[in-house]
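Incident log entry.

Two folding requests arrived from the same account within the same minute. Monitoring flagged them as a possible duplicate submission, but the sequences differ. Recording both here for audit purposes.

Request one:
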Amino acid sequence: MHFDTKIAVVIRTDLEAWQKLNVASFLTSGIAAAFAGCIGEPYEDGSGTKYLALIGQPILIYGADRPALTRALERALARNVTPAVYTEDMFKTTHDAANRAAVRAVGRADLNLVGLAMRAERKVIDKIVDGLKFHT
């Protein structure tokens, strides 16, 4: 199936495995919250057990160092794409309001980014993540 949009998650490569999974989970929730139309229908197995709906299109996950994350953020904003962000300071917080305060306390140029997620037209995402490799 061909999608007109693309979802990309960019995760800093020097994180611990648990941090990468945590960041990817939080960032994709931002996509789901912002783009309700990207959510598919609920699942049901052959026994009739019901399950939650998921994002209905592939999510491409890229790896990056800190400068590449900053570059991707600037490229996204220059193309009017609003990304979900996760900063290193957010690992020290315990709830959503504290996460927002941690981001608000730092200017954009000084954000210690560990991850971004965005959804936009395919060609736009391709320009934002140009030069990045899939995360391994």
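Request two (distinct sequence, not a duplicate):
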Amino acid sequence: MALLVLAAVTFAAIPVDWFAMQVRCHPDGSCEFARQGMLYYWPPATLLAYGAIAFLYLRAARSRGLGTRVLPYAITGAVTTVVFPAAWLAVRLYFQSHPYPDGPLPYWYFVLDRLVMPWGMIGVTLLLLAWLERSPGLLLFTSGYLALVLLVLPMGDGFGAPHFGVRAGMAVPQAIAGLVLLLGAAGFRAVQRRHR
């Protein structure tokens, strides 16, 4: 249930990011871009998503006559909705005021950047949900998801012409993260049906 909601929020972010991204390409083929639209989309979207997840979990638990500890998850979702965009802005401001090193950026920069992005934030809150539900399966899924998001997915490499390439370079990894969340939701749903 949570994975399905988070997948929907991730897929909905792609057109917002695509059309709100400001891209300026130079004659030498280099491009500058700003993704300010993310800051307007993700905080309200994640607050609504975590609120919906908490509501759906409570409703499902009550229909089964069970109690559930969803409040810590909802609170963590709300806190990360504020903390992670603030961290994302702090990282951006730091690197705007400090020059990039000559040569390739250090690998830790990319990992930190991805951690403070919304898809990294989703992984952190899923870790909490796995702990709250005491679900080894969700913990295993979330560990794989975080490894994919933090270490594997290409970010900003670009595909095709420069103006289209920057947008696609950001959209493709988001689509992959959304697809992984959607496949995870389908997988957990199939497992639940088998156990009934």
